[in-house]
Structure formats: C-alpha cells, structure tokens
Amino acid sequence: MALQKTNATKAAFREEPNFLDPVTFTDSDVVPYTSLSWKPETDKIERTYINSKTLVAGKPLQGKQTASGTIGLELLPDAVDTTKLVGHVLYITALGKYTANGATIDLTNNTITDNTDAADGDAGMYYFSDANEAIKSLGAKYVIGGVEANSVDIRGVLVSSLKLAFPTQGLVTSEFSLSGSTGFIPVDQGSDLADFCSSMTPHVARNMTVTIDGVSVCATDLEFTITNEIADYICVTQAGVGEKSITKRTIEGSFKVAFENLDQINAYNAWSEATVFAYSKTLDDNEVAIELPKVQRTSLDLADDSGIFAQTVTFSVIDDCANNNRPIKLAAK
Predict the structure, then answer these.
(1) Helices marked H in the chain — which ranges?
(2) Distance linking the first and last C-alpha atoms of the chain
(3) Which helix (H) or strand (E) holds 157?
(4) Would you give per-residue pLDDT tens digits along the chain (333 residues)?
C-alpha cells in the first residue's frame, strides 16, 4: 500500500462562473501552502421508532453535505503580476473586490490612496464589496498525495475568515478558513497539475512601518483578522447548499508595544478612535500595505514580557461615510 504524503498534496482554487458550477483547473490555480486541512461533513437525519423494543434509533439518513477547511499561505507577491498576491482569488473572495492599479501607497503620509475609480495607481488593491454585490465563490481541488487519481473537488467555497499575521522577525502569513457548499466530489483523473514554484521572496516582519494615528510605534506581533458571517440557503432540490451569502463582516486586530507612558491606557479609557497603517517590503522590493482608517481600542492587557511591561492592544474596525466605505484597504505592488 502506497502512503500518500501530506506535503505532496496539491491545492488549487479557481473562481466559479456561477455558484456551484464545476471548473477546470490549470497549473496557475495551484497555490503553495504552509498548512492545509479539509473536512467533509454530512448532517445525520435521526429516525426514532416509537415502538422500538431496544430504544435504539433506526438507520439514519443523509442530510446536508458540506465541507470546511483551512489553508495557510506565506504573504508572497505573484511572480507574473506583483500587484497581486499569491492566492489572489482567495483574497478576492475574502474581501470581495480587487482593482488592478487601484491604489497608491503613500509613505509620506502613511496612507493608501484610493485610485479604484480611475485605476491610475501603481498598486493593486483588495477591498470590501458592497452589501448588494454578488459574492465570488470558488471551486477547490484537493489532489491528495499529489496523485491525480486521488482528487476531490469542493464547490461553492467562500472564505469565512482571513487572518494576516506579522510575527516579529518571522514570515508574514495569511490563514484562510474555508466554507464549502458540497462534500468531497471525486473527480476523474485528468492531466497532472504542476507543482507550485516561485522565485519570489516572501514578506518578513522586520524593517516594517507601523503607525497608530500617524505616529510610528515599535509594535510586535501585529495581527489583522477579517471574519465573514456566512448564511447558507438550503434547497430541497440539492444535496448541499443552494446559495451562500455573507451577512456580516467584522475586522479585528491587535499589536503589542512596550509600556512607556499612559498614552495607550488613556486612549483605551477614552474609547478614542484611531487609524492603523502597516507597511512591509521584501528583499525583492515588492511592497504590501494595510490601512484601517478608523478603529476603536476594545481591550488592553498589561503583562510581563521578558522582564519588560508590555501592553497588548486589541482593536475593532468601524465604518462610516468619512472613510469612503473602505474600512480596510490592502495594497500590493
């Protein structure tokens, strides 16, 4: 018996023309990953016999079939178009929209200028779709052990959360939580998908720029998490989910700074608003920036960190007309 190695497994993602439509995957759809898991799930319909002498339920039947999973990626620029990130369609599905040349990273003012209307910036920008816009669903392919005959498809995949982590002096990573609308669908053996290989250098959380309210801070362990609340619409005409819709979005984050004075405590006590900006540049001179135009500190924790008092600040993003309905901007070039 041949054991299928985890690190030989290939994962591919491609946007569906319509929700649940099957897609044909190509080499360019394969993404590298640092971690990967998929779990098929089938609801069990219980049957109880009123006159059962044993009190044991009858044979259960299959209910709704779905799949869930996670995939972790390095924050890596696309080798063909550096205004995109590797795993491009995952980022689009997580946030909703992307515009090529839709942004300019302004390091003088530590902001991201929105050029989405004219598309005359020099960086691509990922940003939230509006509530009335359709959500882009993905088809996913999972080639277990790298053996094409052991392939399964999952359809109608949305991203339920995206966590961007900047561990101090470590690799910057993106972790996506995935929600599929079908279970595992075995697929016929086709042509082998190529292994992913990139000569690009990933982002490392060093020599970064991090500002809070325009003031540079010596932050450690910076994180941003986008959570999409997903509602499933179930149809009697299908075995899985008939449609998925994002009904609510939240953005939370945190950073740690050494305690120097009462500034962070006073800001937390006052429930004051702030802007957050983070910028990273690779050794290949590729850039990525995140701007949160308006956040509120939601908690503050003082604790020992190797003999130094450190404070971990947790914040939540808010939205209003003043930030042009762009509660988060993610730019790459």
Answers:
(1) 88-95, 263-269
(2) 47
(3) strand 151-166
(4) 577 778 889 999 999 999 999 999 999 999 999 999 999 998 888 887 766 777 777 788 888 889 999 999 999 999 999 999 999 999 999 999 999 999 999 999 999 999 999 999 999 999 999 888 888 999 999 999 888 889 999 999 999 999 999 999 999 999 999 999 999 999 976 778 888 888 899 999 999 999 998 899 999 999 999 999 999 888 877 777 888 999 999 999 999 999 988 988 888 898 888 999 999 999 999 999 999 999 999 999 999 888 888 999 999 998 876 656 799 999 999
